[in-house]
């Protein structure tokens, strides 16, 4: 469904047609399909926000909330900021959008434990977004993957939202990490993260040229 | 030759001096305005100008546009509008095309120079004049026989977007409007409507096939092979290109950074190309592109964009010095870009070119950067507000809203979004300053430092909790410093995740391993300065007469 719509929608986003408010119902339906089918199309979603920006009376907080949650599923990309910039201060303060803004803020600060606590207290907020929690786990794994050479097993399970042992094993396998007793070996970071030295190289010829011009 | 005569003539303007100043007495001024006789020199200029337009003498037009017009403005119209339409029409047989072009310059001058700015009526008329111009160009069956200098075309598009921006700001300030003004505004909702402006720019892009031309050009082919009937004409081609930059600006003003970058697909901002020969256009392009990157947290890309154009400006400064009417704008934008670069470098420390570094070490920037590094949020905000574009909301407030000033809402919102980002990164400079001192550092030790640094805990803290907090900040550090960086490809939106900042680290269980960038002392610059000093000394010695 989402795949089939992608083509139809793409023609709606070309040139000036992008700003045609008649396309809004189709584009909003497309947002709901993305939520249901765990698909994602940033460009189409930004076009919806743009239409809201131009036609403030059509603003739909529910659709907008879904767009923002979908943007979170694409972390570490900065889609959420792009969405926020197209909205207005007043819209950001509406329920449930303000809740989502808060989620984004703690995720961006990588306070994952706080995030999981929050999610458990508000399960209905993200329920309609299929695969939402796993998308966040992907983001957690991304951050872990760039930060750690090895991490405590318990710590990792905690960051992933206190997952049980089999789920933990699933994520470790998915990213090709290795279990070593109480630690999980992520990757050898020595090779990527090392001290750089920047030296200036000036050869005699180039200095000679400057000297020659000074007489 | 005619030009020589006029050029000489322009220098003899002193004889007309009585016309050129305000008297300071409003009634007398009004009297003067009504009885202002068009100087002969201006008359002959306009007649000659019109001839050049209709005969398509581009080089001549370039001189008239870049030199004669500003000079005459300075001499006769510093504080008053150029002659009215009817007066000029009589001189040029009401030549329709010339009259449209004249009125464009006429209104532009009112926007720029007349105190109090344009009236509502003038704003409307300027809009209608743009409609006439673009209708003439766009609805023609075949390319119109009109050729204008590229600088003029650029300033025309840029001014069109500027006047839209100015109108949106004006429209949003409800508190100073008379009921009559509000009524007029309400019954003319189509005037300076954002869709209309977008439509014009898109149409110019489509008509010229400029996207296709740029695509072929980027892949090394001949753009003329896809330019089509219109796009092969310089007028359409350049209007198309400048409209892309106009769209970049317009999208940025509306906070749509994704579209802003996307619209420049197939344009490599840093590269010289056959389209990129108008410095003001290049500078404006880099300003908006860099800004959009900064908002998208693509600091490496923003820093690259800003440093590259700022270096270009440093090297070609003399070029702009003579053309004063552009110079102000370029200077302002340059200063704004140094501010934005300073912000980016505080958030994402990275090596930049030595001569850029030199400028940033100057007092005003240096102080601001220092404050921002120390976590002064107000300084971040001040620098941002000074350096950001003048954002607008596309929807003007309803006229029956409370008579308030709504023009600042958009800028406040974009500032808030940016400041959220800054607040999220608040702890990173402190962590960076500690990490810089070590190559390896146990987590618990750093947690201790951080706790001591935090003065709110009265010397009591729980190490586990502090370590817990530190972990969050360290993860945040890695996340925020790993950003999409463009390396190749036709779209500026593309790129790969990279850690471009100078300090990096990883954690091996409980130990932090730090990798810093060490820059050896730059002796090249030092030597060059010493060589110059030596040369200077030598020259002075030779001049000595004993």
UniProtKB/TrEMBL annotation, chain A:
It holds the Pfam family CSN8_PSD8_EIF3K. Residues 40-201 form the PCI domain. The keyword Protein biosynthesis applies. One of its GO terms (molecular function) is ribosome binding. SUPFAM superfamilies: ARM repeat, Winged helix' DNA-binding domain. GO terms for cellular component: eukaryotic 43S preinitiation complex; eukaryotic 48S preinitiation complex; eukaryotic translation initiation factor 3 complex. It is found in: Cytoplasm. It comes from the Eukaryota. The keyword Protein biosynthesis applies. InterPro entries: ARM-type_fold (IPR016024), CSN8_PSD8_EIF3K (IPR033464), eIF3k (IPR009374), PCI_dom (IPR000717), Transl_init_fac_sub12_N_euk (IPR016020), WH-like_DNA-bd_sf (IPR036388), WH_DNA-bd_sf (IPR036390). Keywords: Cytoplasm, Initiation factor, Protein biosynthesis. GO terms for biological process: formation of cytoplasmic translation initiation complex; regulation of translational initiation. Its main location: cytoplasm. Component of the eukaryotic translation initiation factor 3 (eIF-3) complex, which is required for several steps in the initiation of protein synthesis. The eIF-3 complex associates with the 40S ribosome and facilitates the recruitment of eIF-1, eIF-1A, eIF-2:GTP:methionyl-tRNAi and eIF-5 to form the 43S pre-initiation complex (43S PIC). The eIF-3 complex stimulates mRNA recruitment to the 43S PIC and scanning of the mRNA for AUG recognition. Component of the eukaryotic translation initiation factor 3 (eIF-3) complex, which is involved in protein synthesis of a specialized repertoire of mRNAs and, together with other initiation factors, stimulates binding of mRNA and methionyl-tRNAi to the 40S ribosome. The eIF-3 complex specifically targets and initiates translation of a subset of mRNAs involved in cell proliferation. Component of the eukaryotic translation initiation factor 3 (eIF-3) complex. Belongs to the eIF-3 subunit K family. This is Eukaryotic translation initiation factor 3 subunit K. It comes from Brassicogethes aeneus.
TrEMBL record, chain B:
One of its GO terms (cellular component) is eukaryotic translation initiation factor 3 complex. Its main location: cytoplasm. The keyword Protein biosynthesis applies. Signal peptide: none annotated. Transmembrane segments: none annotated. It comes from the Eukaryota. It is found in: Cytoplasm. Keywords: Cytoplasm, Initiation factor, Protein biosynthesis. Belongs to the eIF-3 subunit L family. Component of the eukaryotic translation initiation factor 3 (eIF-3) complex. Component of the eukaryotic translation initiation factor 3 (eIF-3) complex, which is involved in protein synthesis of a specialized repertoire of mRNAs and, together with other initiation factors, stimulates binding of mRNA and methionyl-tRNAi to the 40S ribosome. The eIF-3 complex specifically targets and initiates translation of a subset of mRNAs involved in cell proliferation. This is Eukaryotic translation initiation factor 3 subunit L.
């Amino acid at each position: 469904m989402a795949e089939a719509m992608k083509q139809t929608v793409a023609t709606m986003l070309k040139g000036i047609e992008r700003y045609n408010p008649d396309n809004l119902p189709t584009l909003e339906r497309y947002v709901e399909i993305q939520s249901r089918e765990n698909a994602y199309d940033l460009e189409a979603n930004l076009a919806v926000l743009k239409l809201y920006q131009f036609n403030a009376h059509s603003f739909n907080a529910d659709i907008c909330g879904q767009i923002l949650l979908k943007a979170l599923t694409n972390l570490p990309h900065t889609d959420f900021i792009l969405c926020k910039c197209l909205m207005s201060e007043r819209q950001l303060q509406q329920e449930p959008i303000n809740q989502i803004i808060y989620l984004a803020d703690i995720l961006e600060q990588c306070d994952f434990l706080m995030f999981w606590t929050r999610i458990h207290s508000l399960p209905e907020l993200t329920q309609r977004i299929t695969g939402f929690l796993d998308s966040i786990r992907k983001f957690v794994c991304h951050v872990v993957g760039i930060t750690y050479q090895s991490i405590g097993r318990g710590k990792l399970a905690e960051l992933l939202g206190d997952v049980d042992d089999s789920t933990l094993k699933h994520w470790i396998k998915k990213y090709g990490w290795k279990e070593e007793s109480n630690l999980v070996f992520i990757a050898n970071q020595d090779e990527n993260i090392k001290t750089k030295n920047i030296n200036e190289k000036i050869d005699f010829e180039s200095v000679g040229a400057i000297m020659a011009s000074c007489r | 030759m005619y030009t020589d005569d006029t050029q000489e003539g322009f220098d003899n303007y002193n004889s007309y001096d009585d016309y050129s100043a305000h008297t300071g007495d409003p009634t007398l001024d009004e009297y003067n305005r009504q009885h202002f006789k068009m100087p002969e020199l201006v008359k002959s200029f306009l007649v000659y100008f019109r001839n050049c337009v209709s005969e398509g003498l581009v080089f001549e037009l370039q001189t008239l546009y870049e030199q004669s017009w500003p000079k005459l403005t300075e001499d006769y119209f510093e504080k008053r509008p150029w002659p009215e339409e009817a007066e000029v029409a009589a001189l040029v047989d009401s030549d329709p095309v010339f009259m449209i072009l004249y009125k464009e310059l006429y209104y532009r001058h009112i926007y720029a120079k007349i105190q109090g700015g344009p009236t509502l009526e003038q704003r409307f008329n300027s809009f209608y004049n743009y409609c006439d111009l673009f209708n003439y160009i766009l609805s023609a069956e075949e390319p119109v026989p009109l050729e204008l200098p590229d600088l003029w075309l650029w300033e025309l598009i840029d001014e069109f977007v500027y006047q839209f921006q100015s109108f949106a700001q004006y429209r949003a300030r409800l508190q100073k409007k008379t009921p009559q003004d509000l009524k007029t505004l309400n019954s003319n909702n189509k005037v300076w409507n954002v869709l209309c402006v977008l439509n014009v720019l898109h149409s110019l892009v489509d008509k010229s096939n400029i996207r296709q031309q740029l695509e072929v050009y980027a892949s090394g082919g001949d753009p003329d092979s896809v330019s089509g009937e219109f796009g092969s004409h310089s007028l359409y081609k350049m209007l198309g290109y400048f409209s892309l930059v106009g769209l970049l600006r317009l999208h940025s003003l509306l906070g749509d950074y994704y579209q802003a970058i996307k619209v420049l697909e197939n344009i490599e901002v840093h590269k010289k190309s056959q389209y990129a020969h108008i410095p003001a256009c290049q500078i404006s392009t880099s300003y908006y592109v860099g800004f959009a990157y900064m908002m998208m947290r693509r600091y490496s890309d923003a820093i690259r964009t800003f440093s590259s154009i700022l270096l270009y400006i440093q090297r070609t400064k003399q070029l702009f010095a003579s053309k004063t009417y552009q110079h102000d704008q370029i200077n302002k934008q340059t200063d704004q870009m140094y501010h934005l670069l300073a912000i980016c470098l505080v958030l994402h420390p990275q090596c930049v070119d030595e001569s850029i570094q030199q400028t940033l070490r100057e007092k005003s920037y240096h102080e601001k950067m220092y404050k921002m590094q120390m976590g002064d949020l107000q300084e971040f905000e001040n620098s941002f507000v000074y350096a950001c574009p003048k954002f607008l909301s596309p929807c003007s407030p309803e006229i029956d809203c409370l008579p308030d000033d709504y023009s600042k809402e958009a800028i406040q919102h974009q500032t808030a979004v940016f400041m959220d980002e800054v607040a999220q990164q608040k702890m990173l400079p402190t962590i960076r300053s500690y990490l810089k001192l070590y190559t390896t550092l146990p987590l618990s030790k750093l947690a201790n430092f951080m706790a001591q640094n935090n003065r709110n805990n009265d010397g009591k803290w729980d190490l586990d909790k502090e370590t817990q907090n530190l972990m969050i900040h360290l993860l945040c550090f890695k996340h925020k410093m790993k950003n999409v960086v463009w390396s190749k490809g036709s779209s500026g939106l593309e790129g790969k995740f990279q850690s471009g900042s100078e300090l990096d680290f990883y954690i091996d269980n409980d130990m932090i391993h730090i990798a810093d960038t060490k820059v050896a002392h730059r002796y090249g610059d030092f030597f060059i300065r010493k060589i110059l000093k030596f040369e200077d000394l030598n020259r002075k010695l030779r001049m000595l007469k004993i």
